[in-house]
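Our collaborator T.R. sent over the components below with a one-line note: 'Predict the complex.' Nothing else. No constraints on interfaces, no templates requested, no preferences about which chain binds where. So this is a plain run: every listed entity goes in together, and whatever single assembly comes back becomes the starting point for the next discussion.
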Amino acid sequence: MRRTVRRPYDGVVACTPVTIPYERHSIRPAQWWIGSALRELVAASGLAKSDIDGLCVSSFTLGPDSAVGLTQHFGVSPRWLDHVPMGGASAVVALRRAARAVEAGDASVVAVIAGDTSSPASFQDMLPAFSRFAQDAVYPYGGSGPNGSFALITDHYMRRYGASREDFGRICVAQRANALSVPHAMMKTPLTLDQYLAARPIADPLVLFDCVMPCAGAEAFLVMREADARALALPAATLLATIERHNAYPEDDIQDRGGWALDRDELWAMAGVGPDDVDCLQTYDDYPVIVMLQLEDLGFCAKGDAKDFVRQHDLTVAGKFPHNTSGGQLSRGQAGAAGGHLGLVEAIRQLTDQPLGDAVAGARIAVAAGFGMINYDRGLCSGAAVLARAS
Amino acid sequence: MTEPPGQIRRKNPLARTRQPVPLPAARSRAALGLAVGAAEGSFTLQVCAECEAVQYPPRDVCEACLSGRLRWRPVPNGGRVLAATTARVSGERYFRERTPWRTGLVRLDCGPRVVAHLHEGCAVDGRVRLELKLDQAGRGAVVARPEEGAHERDDRQLREMTADPRGRRALIVDGRASTAPALARALAEAGCPRVFVGLAECWKPLATRGALDTVPGLDIVPLDVTDASSVQELAGQMGGKVEILVNNAAHVRPGGILGSGDLGGGPD
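Returned assembly:
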């Protein structure tokens, strides 16, 4: 069977980055968070609610609703509707689908929204039945949820490639520095490497600051044709290339690479730029080891060299390699599925001069990556998008 | 935490009492098959009847050829530990009472990768043998032991999945049953430091009284399993002190085990 090659995008942009400020716990359900994001999209774009004729939703806490129920709840009649249940990869996947819908004329404007609520019990309640395999073969083994699974991946990575806890700490400390200028980051106090190293152990070798804090919040953006964004005078980021992959490398004993490694050549070829051209990188940072996998698998450094990369590069907004420039989930919190959208929304913000915190000077090319769904022993979904400042 | 084998120490009255919280029992229908191997003492996993691929976690179609004909069969249980972690914090109350809790990812020689409870003697890259045990939810669970030497009864975690009498208190519910003296003696000889024997209508003569009295660490307690209030009274007094319950009473609850619609309560 002949394998096709992804076709480049034809004048599709992402614009109108929206963030509903996170709260640690909220009595408002996901419907409120997603609806509030839609309201902000309407207000910020100047469009009428009825002009938005495509809707793509991601959420863990929307039940018993899916995206369908929201159309009646919000009083909209989209002619294109999608629901992407891929956790941290949802944003990239949603962007891919929305972009093709816009290209094909199935929709003229797609609202991509992720939102979740958080109660003191909601995260814990989700863990026992996160997936069929997790319920049967992971949760009954310590009940540690993703902490336990990523602890195994981190343990293996450290042994195989010689990364140290200090190397992971560098990522967390730089992201905290980036978060300090963001008004509604959940974590607003500076973090030192010593504090990171002395933190409370969670699941060896992971400590408190390796783990994200579950919270309530929403992230959203619009996808439309470049010409439409220009007519509306909306600052926009042009979509250059995307990839998505699920259950990559099933033969690997333990996850030390993701689907990015399989598809990155096509990603960069489609984008017409390379890793050296990237002005800011937004990785999916549910645990710092996954940041390292993305640095390697997307081609910013060779396999196993991420530890050297984070030693040699200043990862702060003002640094040589601006990374997770709003603090990422590690410092801003993980608002459920919106955690997957945080990086992509931040990439759009940096390319359209609308950052929440400090701006990356002269950012022209941004990459946002996604990673999601620890189904059994590894995260299954991976994705990435390359965006450019619209000319 | 299960007390280490040996003497039972008096509990510090100021210390927090461990709550008897259950481990969630929800599993897929396929995963329930692990309990059969655990009960039989064999390491059985699903094997594809068409392509012979060994499957784990339990599933409904073969990962390799998508056949729906998966059969539970004994498979070689040797493997290697790929990674290990010790959970210091848990989202589940059962484990919160028992942290730290050590688990690992094991590559079986016969193919699958298995998240398993790790015996303290298991090292990363070390050879292990996997076994199926019943966990506290009554479900089949995979435990890993070092290939050489160690026994699960010496491991704090794996003791949670066994009824090793050492350092544990047992209750034999029917002291009038002919099996009671032999059971009591066997428990004592296996290291059980305290054997309670339930006796209905204590004032009635008991022919085996002499045989029971020779068992060290034996206590007679009033218990009539046909009387729900008697069961409740004794449970209230010493339910928390008994780790092993031997149900040797030939008593069938009226309506059967499912009759009351509440497995946790008495029938009347």
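Summary for T.R.: Helices of chain B lie at 34-40, 93-96, 156-159, 180-189, 209-213, 228-238.
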